[in-house]
């Protein structure tokens, strides 16, 4: 068994229809620490002919990619490597011509997984990178197929793999090297809608929609670059389609920051997602970081670790940066109590407030001076499994704004402002770092009264109450009477 310093070295290899991916990580105390990533665009699906035979050129490209991967896993025993093939290798009648030499190169067998298993593992990978708290629809667009997955914190409840991938649709509906045309989008979109219609009755009742894959992240990136925000909507995709049809490839890439490799399969991938949106009546989608390879790595974790991934991340941060856990608990208790008084009701925001309280002092491991800024930097630039990008950004903001003067936060929602105030007051309340200390908040008429303030702290709380007026909070020192 190969162990790196402090943990078990593991690797996951995803042999996709468009790209091959490798991720190497260390499993330490139920937590995955990514050490290396490598992606090679192979476009294996392009090599399938009408009889579903892989041509020799595609096999050669795939094996050349694995030669590169082999350098990064040659020190690992087979039991510490997960290698899977997806749609194209499921379809290829001569898949063995690739699989046998592939296994010899990697020193580990390649498992060709079903579409249902691919969807389940992808959902599991997403659950490793962000919290799944409600019924969620996940759409994963690959080179050869698209997986539709319905699930929640307890696991997957429905999955379907549809034969509509960006590489396959590129060959069927678009002309390589030529600017896409509206009629091509219409044809591909309609086919994707029909493919989705066949299983649409199984995918209902979800509260959030997530998208996994390079294609969906590229669509989100393009939409944001075109002024449509981070969320993917029918409107943002319509604008992207218009720009793809109107601009030369180089101009579109410059305008959106999309790479040439990704641009080549963006039109068919966009058409697939448009068809899914239309058939399932989706309003918006968030792009997520998790994917099949993260789901493969999750198989190396102890049972139950995935559902507790966010807690594991916070625990790991506390241990790594020597956070005073007792102080964090004191601040957390008061912050949650104050948040209730201040009207914070959103469960996701309450969870983030709790997380912020648990790690609010991690920046002190660098320096006490400006430790709030150090903490915000660490949280912004660290891998935080279980946290969506927006959650990670807000967590860093809460920690970074925990003390001193506040910037203009007029664009913050009211509840976020209240959560920040609750955190700041809780931290100020426990500067003595002892049990039994702390203040209370009581609603009195149109104000919030800060009570049980020790005499030597009155000036500090008066200054803080003045600062919090900028968040729209009317606080005063005094008793409930």
Structural descriptors:
alpha/beta, Nucleotidyltransferase, domain 5, six-stranded mixed β-sheet, five-stranded mixed β-sheet, 47% helix, 17% strand
Describe this structure in words.
The protein has 481 residues and is an alpha/beta fold. 47% of the residues lie in helices and 17% in strands. It is built from 18 helices and 14 strands. Strands 1, 2, 3, 4, 5 and 6 form a 6-stranded mixed β-sheet that branches. A 5-stranded mixed β-sheet has the order 9-8-7-10-11, sandwiched between helices. Strands 12-13-14 form a 3-stranded mixed β-sheet. A hairpin with a 2-residue loop joins strand 3 and strand 4. The termini are far apart. The model has no long low-confidence stretch (mean pLDDT 91).
CATH architecture of the largest domain: Orthogonal Bundle
How many distinct domains?
A: 3
Report the helical percentage: 40-55%
SSE-based structural type: alpha/beta
Would you report the number of β strands? 14
Main sheet, how many strands, which sense, barrel?
6 strands, mixed
Spans where pLDDT lies below 50 across 5 or more residues: none
Strand content: 15-25%
Task: Summarize the topology.
Blueprint: E1 3-4, E2 7-15, E3 19-28, E4 31-41, H1 56-73, E5 81-85, H2 87-91, H3 96-106, E6 111-112, H4 115-129, E7 136-141, E8 146-152, E9 155-162, H5 166-173, H6 182-197, E10 208-212, H7 214-225, H8 234-246, H9 249-256, H10 260-280, E11 286-287, H11 292-298, H12 309-320, H13 325-341, H14 347-359, H15 371-381, H16 389-400, H17 414-429, E12 440-444, E13 447-451, H18 458-468, E14 475-477
Parallel strand pairs: 2-5, 5-6, 7-10, 10-11, 13-14
Antiparallel strand pairs: 1-2, 2-3, 3-4, 7-8, 8-9, 12-13
Helix pairs in contact: 1-3, 4-11, 5-10, 6-10, 7-8, 7-10, 8-10, 13-14, 13-17, 14-16, 14-17, 15-16, 17-18
């Amino acid at each position: 068994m190969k162990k790196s310093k402090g943990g078990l070295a593991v690797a996951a290899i995803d042999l996709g229809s468009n790209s091959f991916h490798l991720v190497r990580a260390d499993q330490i105390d139920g937590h995955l620490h990514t050490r290396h990533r490598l992606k090679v665009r192979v476009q294996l699906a392009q090599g399938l002919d009408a009889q579903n035979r892989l041509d020799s050129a595609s096999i050669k490209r795939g094996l050349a990619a694995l030669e590169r991967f082999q350098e990064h896993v040659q020190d690992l025993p087979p039991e510490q490597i997960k290698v899977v093939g997806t749609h194209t290798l499921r379809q290829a009648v001569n898949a063995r011509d690739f699989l046998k030499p592939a296994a010899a190169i990697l020193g580990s067998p390649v498992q060709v997984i079903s579409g249902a298993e691919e969807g389940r593992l992808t959902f599991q990978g997403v659950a490793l990178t962000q919290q799944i708290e409600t019924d969620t629809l996940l759409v994963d667009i690959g080179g050869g197929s698209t997986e539709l997955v319905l699930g929640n914190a307890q696991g997957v409840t429905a999955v379907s793999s549809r034969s509509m991938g960006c590489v396959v649709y590129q060959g069927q509906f678009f002309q390589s090297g030529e600017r896409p045309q509206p009629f091509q989008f219409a044809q591909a979109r309609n086919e994707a809608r029909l493919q989705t219609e066949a299983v649409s009755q199984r995918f209902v009742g979800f509260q959030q929609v997530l998208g996994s894959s390079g294609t969906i992240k590229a669509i989100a990136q393009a939409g944001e670059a075109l002024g449509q925000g981070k969320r993917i909507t029918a409107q943002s995709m319509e604008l992207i389609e218009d720009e793809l049809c109107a601009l030369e490839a180089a101009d579109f890439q410059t305008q959106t920051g999309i790479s040439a490799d990704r641009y080549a399969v963006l039109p068919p991938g966009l058409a697939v997602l448009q068809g899914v949106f239309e058939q399932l009546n989706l309003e918006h989608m968030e792009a997520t970081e998790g994917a099949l390879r993260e789901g493969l790595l999750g198989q190396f974790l102890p049972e139950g670790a995935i559902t507790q991934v966010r807690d594991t991340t916070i625990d790991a941060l506390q241990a790594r940066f020597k956070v005073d856990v007792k102080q964090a608990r004191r601040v957390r208790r008061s912050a949650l109590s104050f948040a209730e008084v201040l009207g914070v009701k959103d469960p996701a925001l309450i969870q983030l407030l709790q997380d912020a309280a648990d790690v609010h002092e991690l920046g002190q491991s660098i320096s006490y001076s400006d430790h709030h800024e150090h903490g915000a930097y660490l949280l912004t630039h660290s891998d935080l499994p279980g946290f969506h990008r927006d959650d990670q950004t807000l967590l860093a903001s809460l920690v970074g704004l925990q003390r001193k003067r506040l910037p203009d936060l007029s664009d913050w929602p009211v509840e976020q402002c209240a959560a920040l105030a609750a955190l700041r007051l809780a931290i100020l309340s426990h500067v003595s770092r002892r049990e039994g200390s702390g203040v209370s908040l009581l609603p009195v008429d149109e104000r919030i009264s800060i009570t049980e303030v020790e005499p030597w702290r009155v000036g500090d709380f008066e200054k803080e109450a003045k600062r919090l007026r900028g968040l729209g909070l009317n606080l005063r020192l005094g008793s409930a009477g």
